[in-house]
Amino acid sequence: MPNVMGVLRAEIRRLARKETKEAVRDLKRQVTALRRRLAATKKRIGDVERTAQRAGSSRAAAPARGEAGGGDGGQIRFSPRWVKVHRAKLGMSRRVYAKLVGVSPQTILLWETNKARPRRATLATWRSLRGRGIRELKAAVGGEAGRKRGPKPGRKARAAARKAAPKRRRAAARKKAGRPARGARRAAPKARRAKAAPKRRRATRGGRAKKK
Fold first, then answer.
1. Is this prediction's pTM over 0.85?
2. Which of 91, 94, 138, 89 is nearest to 112 (CA)?
3. Which helix (H) or strand (E) holds 34?
4. Mapped to the 3 state alphabet, what secondary structure does 57-96 carry?
């Protein structure tokens, strides 16, 4: 009679191996699918990175070609800070700088505050001006660059100027008529008295000598 326990154990082991193989087979299929998806994802990421690198290099090379070729075929670079720096370098006001570029002063203000961007033709003109010398640009606007208005006089200074204006007009009228100024007329008697003082002193001394 066969051993029942041995047969039972053998049957249990066989069933366990069968179940384990089926479970492992499913796991192997899942792992294989995951590996394939991972490889495809890595490939796509590599393609995207290479495309981004090529796009970045082409963007960096396009402005350089535009600068080297005069801006005819490429994009011209523009920055509000460059407008401020160039205008400060020339020492021009917005009005004079706008006259030089061929736009309005309000347009220059919008450029510098980054609220507007110049059109292509105006941008090409501005870029050509940046390549010219300071003296040449100042001569182009008729020497208006560098002129700075002084500070406005205060209230007291304006009042003093209004008060002194009639005096200056009267002094100019006296000078035109050939009459001496007030100060000169006041100084004349003092000068005559100073000249006559030695004579009076000599006369006084002579009178005292005669009395003796």
1. no
2. 94
3. helix 4-68
4. HHHHHHHHHHHHCCCCCCCCCCCHHHHHHHHHHHCCCHHH
